[in-house]
């Protein structure tokens, strides 16, 4: 059975001479890429211009969000990543490497051993992200030099045109991140706490936050609107 995404505009399966030797499945598709720092700053600025306010607080539970001094909180959206002690959540550590060389396109490959090799060029001449690892339950914040060398070696093998004139890479920095995932998938639902305090949960998405954020935001907005019993709200993003 052909997956639905095969029918999407801009998606094409590679067959015959287009498919690399030894590869079982190959495709070319159109998508978007973002430079995370620039993109997040853009969203934050739009939020502020729409009247949004930002508070930096350390909360021990979602209930504390209803008790902020000087604010009357009617509803809380819990997008905390790990869900305040949800026993189904877990961390997936990821290590990547940012290099100065620029790939001409995004390339992703799943290797025979289940690992991944990918190149993601950053916009605005921001270099290329080389990845990557998926290490369940690993909280280590320190980059491994052995992992870096393996990532770069795999990248050069997959996409030889990315190496520089010296046959290597100009490494800008190593990147280590933690993806908050959840058994059974993300939690996206409304919960009513004691005293009829509503919480919209939206967390545990793992490593697909940028990809799915707008769709999740639409669902969250719908839940907020229905829960508060108001007409549809204009997006503040």
From TrEMBL:
Named cofactor requirement(s): FAD
UniProt-recorded Gene Ontology molecular function terms: D-amino-acid oxidase activity; FAD binding
Organism: Trichophyton rubrum (strain ATCC MYA-4607 / CBS 118892) (Athlete's foot fungus)
Protein origin, superkingdom: Eukaryota
Protein name, UniProt field: FAD dependent oxidoreductase domain-containing protein
Domain FAD dependent oxidoreductase, residue spans: 21-220
Gene Ontology biological process terms in this record: D-amino acid catabolic process
UniProt keyword Flavoprotein present: yes
Database matches in SUPFAM superfamilies: FAD-linked reductases, C-terminal domain, Nucleotide-binding domain
One Gene Ontology term, aspect cellular component: cytoplasm
Keyword terms of this UniProt record: FAD, Flavoprotein, Oxidoreductase
Similarity remark: Belongs to the DAMOX/DASOX family.
């Amino acid at each position: 059975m052909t997956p639905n995404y095969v029918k999407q505009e801009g998606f094409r399966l590679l067959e015959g001479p287009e498919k690399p030797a030894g590869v079982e499945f190959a495709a070319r598709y159109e998508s978007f890429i973002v430079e995370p720092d620039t993109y997040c700053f853009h969203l934050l600025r739009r939020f502020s211009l729409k009247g949004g306010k930002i508070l930096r607080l350390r909360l021990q539970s979602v209930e504390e969000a209803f008790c902020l001094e000087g604010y009357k909180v009617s509803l809380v959206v819990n997008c905390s990543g790990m869900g305040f002690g949800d026993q189904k959540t877990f961390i997936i550590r990821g290590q990547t490497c940012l290099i100065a060389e620029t790939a001409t396109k995004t390339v992703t490959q799943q290797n025979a051993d289940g690992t991944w090799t990918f190149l993601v060029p950053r916009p605005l001449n921001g270099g290329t992200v080389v990845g990557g690892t998926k290490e369940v339950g690993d909280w280590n914040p320190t980059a491994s030099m052995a992992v870096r060398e393996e990532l770069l070696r795999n990248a050069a093998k997959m996409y030889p045109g990315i190496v520089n004139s010296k046959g290597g890479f100009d490494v800008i920095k190593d990147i280590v991140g933690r993806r908050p995932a959840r058994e059974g998938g993300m939690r996206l639902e409304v919960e009513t706490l004691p005293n009829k305090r509503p919480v919209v949960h939206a967390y545990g998405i793992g490593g697909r936050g940028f990809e799915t954020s707008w769709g999740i935001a639409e669902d969250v907005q719908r839940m907020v609107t229905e829960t508060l019993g108001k007409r549809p709200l204009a997006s503040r993003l």
